[in-house]
Specification:
6-stranded mixed β-sheet; single chain; 6-stranded antiparallel β-sheet; alpha+beta; 4 domains; Hypothetical protein af1432; Beta-Lactamase
């Protein structure tokens, strides 16, 4: 780093230019993977995005900047950040999220990045608490939170453009017990506060946030007397001092924190209130870090592959959608045919009836000869349905035996015109129709880049296939989408019927697995095939509920904004907040129904148990747990996804630890191989309150809890059972009120089990 005055001036210019080119900060790999995976699965609702954005400075800066450019003002009392985010379209949310960079895992600056993140979260939570307890109506607690979260924007920007230099600056600040600002000025000729304010202005962040970033290391009380609009800087400076005293994260400064008393007196907040904020600060920060997944063991390594895979798939999907849009626009002259087809649809028509109507219209519009349209049958069927249209629009529906591949590989995912007899002679030979071998063509019916069926037809003139290729492409794409929706509707109806049967005739509790011996009189529950039905039911229910909830939330918000009556406004606010809470529940339901596919590998049992105990300690906020582990000698490793099984074990252990009503009691874990040698059996036993037979039956169901009102959502054992199931394991629970609970888990030791 330069020390000469001329070199420092040059360095300052270079740093300004480098930071001026920044368009986003980097987020942690685990955060990026959560966002990209949810985007790929269409599970990223505005309510889910808010919770992550509120915990990550990189995302917060990007989304707030995006909202600012859209002129969705969040500084006033009427519009909150959540409301502004709800006004963005799904495409806008996707573009904003995908533009955020992801820091490489295990990089040399990972520890520093995490430390700065934790410090920013502590300042944000503290600033919000201060703003909520002062009588300054012009100060928004939400804006105070954002100002605290982004107060070190300049330092985070330096971490992006010159991570090694920033690390040396912080090391020198620590060794000399100085503020990082002093060392920055010494070597760079400017401070992170100045850099951060310039960047915040360029990104169009709200003015209170810009001033807080710029002034929070200055004499804010004096400045605020002549410049009242800088009052946010006083709050952030006080929050920064309290956060540094708490020791949460790493601020990069090692001088004495700013005295609290003058700042508190200026804001009119009492010492007792500040002490309460200080005491609750660690809990508030831990809640935010859980949202980011910082407490998940090995998250960075597990998430790296997901980030790159998901980003690549989203890029491909975006390119395909852009190309499809171009093709549809070029075919606008031929949409009369499509419009007639769409307006002729009947809501009660089945997929094959819609296919018949389209095939008849196709023959008439394109003046082709005979037509055969067929749909891909369900995976469980070897018979497909087809529509045959002969001369003079005479049509009929027939069944035929399906052969593999049903759709030729050349058109399974892409549009092309093929010679039909080269690919589906097995189907045409079954029909009582003489198709012309030389003139019959085949094109796919595509929906979302995947064929749901195909249409074969006779062309009267050989050159027509090239002449009408774009028109064929447009009309078959629309027909494919309509037929796909009709098939999906039939699938939903099938799901509803199965759902009704599951509710009206619940499955009986399964008996214990043969390998687990339990006394006859002790209630036992084994989680197995019922999870499959429950997961299928959960996925379907979540998909069906998501859209209505979004409508309820959006309408309630709009009505509340336009309402002047205070009581009515409060009722609408409750509707909006409860709809958002329900959306959060659906996010949990989708995670349960469609968990990530396991990445199984041979895993050391002892190491896995140690990680689970550490995670349990964080979950229960108890440092000294009485957990005794007795693994058998020379026990083999298990073939599982270690992160998923550690999470499952931690949920089971948390239940065991919390089963003691008074003083915490012991939890015993034994590990041994089963008699067959193909599995490892883990037995987790507590002597807590236990469960009766009725509670035991529901223990692994989503959202079930025996706790009193005010409990959490009750997903712990449900997630545990689901993770163990998809890793080819078994889970059995034996319990008796007043005598404790025993959970027996078996896990495979090799891949082919």
């Amino acid at each position: 780093m330069p020390d000469k005055p001329s070199d420092i001036i040059t360095a300052a210019r270079q740093v300004k230019r480098a930071i001026g080119r920044l368009d986003a900060l980097s987020t942690l790999p685990g955060v990026g993977a959560q966002l990209f995976t949810r985007l790929l699965r269409n599970q990223l609702s505005p309510s889910a995005l808010v919770d992550i954005v509120e915990s990550d400075p990189a995302l917060a800066a990007k989304i707030i900047s995006f909202i600012g450019r859209r002129n969705l003002d969040t500084t006033g009392a009427r519009v909150t950040f959540r409301q502004a985010l709800d006004k963005l379209t799904p495409d806008e949310i996707r573009d904003a999220v995908l533009s955020v960079k992801v820091a490489p895992p295990f990089g040399p600056d990972e520890s520093l990045r995490t430390g700065l993140l934790l410090h920013s979260l502590a300042v944000a939570c503290c600033a919000k608490g201060i703003a909520e307890n002062i009588a300054w109506p012009q100060i928004s607690p939400e804006m105070a939170y954002w100002a605290g979260l982004l107060h070190d924007l300049g330092k985070l920007a330096l971490l992006e453009v010159m991570p090694k230099s920033l690390a040396r600056i912080i090391e020198e600040a620590e060794s000399t017990e100085q503020s990082s600002c002093a060392i920055e000025q010494k070597h760079l000729g400017l401070e992170h506060t100045t850099l951060g304010s310039h960047l915040a202005q360029r990104w169009q962040l709200p003015e209170p946030v810009v001033l807080a970033i710029w002034l929070h290391h200055s004499d804010t009380v004096t400045i605020c007397r002549d410049m009242p609009e800088a009052s946010m800087a006083v709050i952030v400076q006080l929050a920064d001092s309290i956060a540094r005293q708490s020791g949460i994260g790493r601020s990069g400064s090692f001088d004495a924190p700013e005295p609290v008393q003058p700042l508190a007196e200026h804001l009119g907040i009492g010492v007792e209130l500040l002490q309460g904020i200080h005491q609750n600060l660690l809990t508030a920060v831990e809640e935010k870090t859980r949202v980011l997944g910082l407490d998940v063991p090995g998250a960075a390594s597990d998430y790296t592959e997901t980030v790159h895979t998901t980003a690549a798939q989203l890029a491909r999907q975006h390119a395909e959608l852009s190309e499809e849009n171009r093709r549809l626009q070029s075919a606008s002259s031929h949409l009369d045919f499509v419009a007639d087809f769409l307006t002729g649809l009947h809501s009660a028509a089945t997929a094959i009836e819609i296919a018949e109507d389209f095939a008849v219209r196709w023959q008439k519009f394109y003046q082709t000869g005979r037509v055969c349209l067929y749909l891909i049958p369900p995976a469980t069927s070897e018979t497909l349905e087809a529509v045959v249209v002969e001369d003079l629009s005479q049509s009929r529906i027939v069944s035929a035996s399906a052969e593999v591949p049903i759709i030729p590989n050349a058109i399974a995912n892409n549009f092309a015109i093929l010679n039909a007899y080269d690919h589906i002679s097995w189907l045409l030979d079954q029909l009582d129709v003489d198709f012309d071998v030389n003139r019959t063509k085949l094109v796919p019916l595509l929906s979302g880049g995947k064929a749901v069926g195909a249409i074969a037809f006779e062309l009267h003139y050989p050159g027509d296939d090239k002449l009408f290729e774009d028109r064929f492409k447009t009309s078959t794409s629309i027909a494919g989408i309509v037929l796909d929706m009709a098939l999906a509707q039939q699938g939903h109806q099938h799901f509803a019927e199965r759902f009704a049967r599951l509710i009206s005739k619940p499955k009986e509790v399964l008996r214990p697995a043969p390998e687990v011996e339990a006394p006859e009189e002790t209630p036992t529950y084994r989680v197995a095939d019922s999870l499959n039905a429950l997961a299928e039911m959960a996925a379907g229910a979540a998909h069906e509920l998501n859209n209505p909830l979004a409508v309820i939330s959006g309408r309630a918000q709009l009505l509340a904004e336009a309402q002047n009556d205070k009581e009515t406004k409060e009722i609408l606010k409750q509707i909006y907040e409860n709809a958002r809470e329900a959306s959060g529940i659906i996010e949990d339901l989708m995670s349960f129904a469609e968990p990530p596919k396991p990445r199984a590998a041979i895993t050391n049992v002892q190491k896995m148990l140690d990680e689970a105990i550490q995670l349990t300690s964080r979950k229960t906020s108890r440092e000294n747990l009485d957990i005794q582990v007795e693994p058998a000698e020379n026990i083999r490793g298990v073939f599982v996804d270690s992160a998923q099984i550690v999470s499952a074990l931690a949920n089971v252990l948390s239940n065991a630890v919390e089963s003691y009503s008074g003083q915490p009691g012991p939890v015993e874990i034994t590990a041994e191989e089963t008699e067959s040698g193909e599995r490892v059996r883990l037995t987790i036993k507590d002597r807590g309150c236990g469960m009766d037979a009725e509670t035991l039956k529901k223990a692994t169901q989503p959202f079930f809890s025996a706790k009193t009102a005010g409990r959490k959502r009750g997903m712990g054992l449900a997630y545990a059972a689901r993770f163990i199931q998809i890793n080819k394991g078994t889970l059995t629970i034996t319990s008796e009120p007043g005598h404790g609970t025993t959970v027996t888990i078996t896990l495979p030791v090799q891949e082919n089990l």
